[in-house]
TrEMBL record:
The chain crosses the membrane at residues 34-53. Gene3D superfamilies: 2.40.30.170, 2.40.420.20, 2.40.50.100, Helix hairpin bin. Residues 325-378 form the Multidrug resistance protein MdtA-like C-terminal permuted SH3 domain. Residues 1-25 are annotated as: Disordered. InterPro entries: Beta-barrel_RND_2, MdtA-like_C, RND_pump_MFP. The lineage of its organism: Bacteria, Pseudomonadati, Pseudomonadota, Alphaproteobacteria, Sphingomonadales. Keywords: Membrane, Transmembrane, Transmembrane helix. GO terms for molecular function: efflux transmembrane transporter activity. The keyword rRNA-binding does not apply. It comes from the Bacteria. The keyword rRNA processing does not apply. One of its GO terms (cellular component) is efflux pump complex. Belongs to the membrane fusion protein (MFP) (TC 8.A.1) family. This is Secretion protein HylD.
Amino acid sequence: MNYETTIRTGLRPASEPPVGDGGFGSSRGGRGRLAIVVAVIALALGLLGWYSMHHAPTTGDAAASRNAQAQSVSVITPGLTSVTASITASGTLAARREMPVGIAGEGGQVVSVLVDAGDWVQAGQVLAVVDRSVQTQQIAGQAANIEVQRANARIAQANLDRALKLVERGFISKADVDRLAATRDAAVAQVRVASAALEQLRASSARLNVVAPAAGLVLTRGVEPGQIVSPGSGILFRIAKDGQFEMQARLAENDLAKLAVGQSATVTPVGTSKPFTGQIWQLSPTIDAQTREGIARIALAYDPALRPGGFASAQIRSGSVTAPLLPESAILSDQQGAFVYVVGKGNKVERRAIKTGDVTAEGIVVAEGLSGNERVVMRAGGFLNAGDVVRPVVANAAASAARPGA
């Protein structure tokens, strides 16, 4: 019975107004619900604060997070390397002293040609012979004329000798003796005149031969047997004196100013990979007003692979320089000029303007802009901007450390 009474007490009709027994419909129940809500909010704020204290990233963690997301780039510390500075030039091969040879005499028909292009000749050697049949007859006639004049001189001398014997006896006057002496002297002089004429004919005949003015290598031959030649025929042979060659390297005036006589150079003719070593023996004293170029003449010893008139390139050593060396991939350029990206403090990318120098097999010389101790972006520079934060990765560290100053 007590159980039923208790049940009925807890159940009330819906139409019955609430009484102040502490239920949810009373004012005391509304305050309880508010307290519960406040407690839940306080609990949530406490949990949020605890999570922030134990799980929020610190400044260092944020930086590490940014670095983890940064782009990885290869960097290199170039250091300083001693590089032999060189200047690249191009030009033509030629004889150092080219001697054009032509006909020196009256000329005539060429009887024979005794040398060909590529032959070595000595000074005075006959290169070609011109027909001299007429000159031979003239020489023979003049030689006979000398004999006639000598005979006349002997007769004049005999007449004078007889007159001198007769003058002692008074048969011939002193004036007659003087006249005979003058006749004798004239006859002797005629002998000398005839002898000089003979030598002139012989010299003229000898000049019909085309001879080498000095020892050297025959470069070209421009005459054939049967050809009629004269002083106006032009050049019959070209000879390289002593077989010495040269390269006439054309250089800009600022490069020419860096060179001096005696500096060595390596010459490579077109069509061959064989290099030839030579030395500058002359620098052009003038600059072409149109091209602003001058000529450095590089002396070369004879070699069959060197052909005058051919094209060649030269590497002229102009001293040594100590500077950073960078691979081509590290150097960029735009309208402002050449530059590299350097990784600075905080792994931020900085743009650094540079001036490049010679290009070598090891890399490109940086003449200005770098000290060699910077971390230079080796690759991926085209995808960076100044101020970007990157994650540097040392590229080829062993080779970089081996360089002086790395």
